[in-house]
Amino acid sequence: VFFGSWGSANVPIPWKEVETKLFALNVVSEVVLQEGQAFDFSVIMQLVAVLSASRSEELKGFMHIVYRSLADVIGSYSKWISAFQTNARPLLLFLAAGISEAVSSNACASALRKICEDASALIDEPSNLEILMWIGEALEKRHLPLEDEEEVVGAISLILGSVSNKELKNNLLARLLSSSYEAIGKLIDGDNNHSLIHNPATYTQILSSATRGLYRMGTVFSHLPVPLPTNPAGDDPIFALLRVFWPMLEKLFRSEHMENGNLSTAACRALSLAIQSSGQHFVTLLPQVLDCLSTNFVSFQNHECYIRTASVVIEEFGHKDEYGPLFVTTFERFSQAASVRALNSSYICDQEPDLVEAYTNFASTFVRTSRKEVLAASGALLEVSFQKAAICCTAMHRGAALAAMSYLSCFLEECLASLLGYTTSIPEGSFNAMAIQVISHSGEGLVSNVVYALLGVSAMSRVHKCATILQQLAAICSISERTSGKAILSWESLQGWLHSAVSLFLILIGFGLQLQTHPSGFLFLQFQIT
């Protein structure tokens, strides 16, 4: 079925035929794997041996394509090929060589990840670990595309995370990240700053190296197993990494280099992944972390990555009572930034869709994860953010509008769920009292903007969100009527908002409106051309 009798040393290998059959074997891999009938992969390993033994001058032109096709096959059938202990080392050496070539780097990086996922127990041997470290330590010089580098670092981290010897694991992780530490160290070294500013070429190169180093660090964090809360911190490799990582990152955050967008994005990504992977190890660092994020956003307001990373912090630790005031302060600093205050029209929202998404997603996370006592004390802040979101839901940019609507719906859902627990009296200073106050102040603008969104561009993609918001608002008004909040928010409030909003828009487009009440108590609209 495969290659015939080219295995003899006297018979030249028909490389074009080999590449064609490798391509075909890769194409049908899904079907073959589903059938579950493994075949003899000795021919594949022979090809691995032949190409690995070839001199660099022999692997040119078409041979690079053969190399890539063979790597694709190894990746597709990795579970079967790597099942044999004897295959691990030849495969690692083959993929290590292919990663350095532009044509085959992507296929080899992907295959390496799959091999490490499927055969971690077989690769966890000293000789194989050294090959992986050789690959990892050479990344700084190879300048692979970021996606390929992430595959490689992720594969290596996966294996290192499974090493049982804690001291060996920590040493190998330190070796893997040593070039990253060095690259960032060059950037934050105070003695170098003056010379870097006056040497743009060198500064650009160091910025690029530091950015790549941060990406590698984030990838390592994301592939290490999350520590158990019961494990001592000293036994956790993530804790050992954090002791080096955070002081270095904090110094970087407080430097003028963060004006660079790529560096900021990489630093925020690394921090987000470190927080998600480190369990409770980051708790004591929250004040410094959030101060860095909010300060840098105020300084560099075109870098919304700081808000996105703060959302990760709130998601992980928003339930902790003792940090509630800290989260509120962070929310206030974001909300008071000039770029956020400027989100007062759909036009501005369309100019800054990433900022709208980041800010409203942060607000959603804050409302969803914070304690009700913290939310109750944040009424003025939530009202401002709620009104901003109501404006942003009219944006033409679909992502920005839907993110704003998601926040509106999230706030209303939390309010509705909380109100269902009360039958009559609503205590002053409670979350429910605050929520009713916010809705009564913002309801008219909310309804007006939701109706406008339904009349705007791409309205069909927003129908479900708009309908959900109006249903939630109607339910809240209905429940509020049965409580002490009736004087502030009632069914009549919603009727007035609907009448005002729809009347205005129909007048603008040349229509008349009749707002009528069904005998069941529900409102319906009757449109007439005027």
Automatic annotation (TrEMBL):
Gene3D superfamilies xrefs: Leucine-rich Repeat Variant (1.25.10.10)
Full protein name: Exportin-1/Importin-beta-like domain-containing protein
Organism: Citrus sinensis
Lineage, top ranks: Eukaryota, Viridiplantae, Streptophyta, Embryophyta, Tracheophyta
